[in-house]
Specification:
259 residues; seven-stranded parallel β-sheet; binds NADP nicotinamide-adenine-dinucleotide phosphate; Rossmann fold; globular
Length: 259
């Protein structure tokens, strides 16, 4: 198929073995974009590439800084300059605050935050040399404010939102755009473990469709679904003490739990 739908020739996606990343890869490749896919599960990536032409497989663990750098170099050599990188790999360890666990926090930060940093540092020099490039990474609406059960995950996504602002301020003059993608709930293996209601749950197809519709305009943020985003953005306007009171009240977290 002729590559006319999107402005990119070569796209690299991490966290592409399942969920949102997998769907992004399928949709882009079906439109004629050359897509490099990465994740740890080499078998799932190979299946993905076997089912859709235009997909090339670069398995890696995003916590392995050298492996991420090597993959970026190999993709540039074998597929051409990376026009768009979507750093999307992530992990979710839902826990209540009383179960805060340093090991889970370290894994979450290593995958969700440092995994993105490793990707950015790997593509940045070549993008700067070319004077163009688009770096996108997947945060979450859970990064807007502290949320229950999110003591390991939320801080990693808040860090990404902050990082995106810093990079966006400084990289524009290099010709490099930065987009933070903040989804609400999407029905993927990540959320299938959840035992709580997930309002406005979306399919990976709808999530990927929304992302790919908006990315060519290079916005700073892509956040969806709007119904959830609107509510959560409103809470960002509240001072912390009011926000905390509101959430405690809404979730009935004022009384000590019965043991
Ligand atoms: N689903 C939601 O409701 C939701 C909401 C907001 C944000 N997000 C974010 O969206 C992104 C994609 O999540 P998803 O919902 O599509 O979940 P998913 O289906 O579980 O996908 C997570 C992806 O990350 C990869 N991954 C995990 N650890 C990795 C590591 N150490 N190295 C390389 N790849 C790794 C996984 O592949 P392997 O296991 O094969 O490595 C998989 O491809 C994540 O950043 C997530 O935080 C999701």
């Amino acid at each position: 198929m002729d590559n006319t739908a999107y402005p990119w020739k070569t796209v690299w996606i991490t966290g592409a073995s399942t969920g949102i990343g997998r769907q992004l890869a399928l949709s882009l490749a079906a439109s004629g974009v050359k897509v490099a896919v990465s994740a740890r599960s080499a078998g799932k990536l190979a299946e993905l590439a076997a089912g859709q032409s235009g997909i090339s497989v670069y398995p890696l663990d995003v916590t392995d800084r050298a492996a991420v750098a090597a993959a970026a170099a190999a993709i540039a050599d074998e597929m051409g300059g990376i026009d768009l990188a979507i750093f999307n790999a992530g992990t979710w360890h839902p826990s209540e605050a009383v179960d805060l666990d340093g090991a889970k926090a370290a894994t979450s930060m290593a995958v969700n935050y440092l995994g993105v940093v490793h990707g950015i540092e790997a593509v940045l020099p070549r993008m700067r040399q070319r004077g163009l490039g688009h770096i996108a990474f997947t945060g979450s609406v859970a990064g807007y404010r502290g949320l229950p059960k999110s003591c390991h995950y939320g801080p990693t996504k808040a860090a990404l939102i902050n990082l995106a602002e810093t990079l966006s301020i400084e990289l524009k003059r290099e010709g490099i755009s930065v987009t933070i993608i903040n989804p609400g709930f999407v029905d993927t293996p990540m959320t299938q473990v959840n035992d709580f209601p997930m309002p406005f749950l979306m399919t990976p197809e709808d999530a990927a469709g929304t992302i790919l519709k908006r990315l060519p305009r290079k916005p700073f943020e892509i956040a969806f679904p709007w119904q959830l985003v609107r509510q959560l953005k409103f809470t960002q306007l509240l001072p912390a003490f009011l926000y905390i009171r509101l959430i405690r009240r809404l979730l009935g977290l004022n009384a000590k739990p019965k043991t």
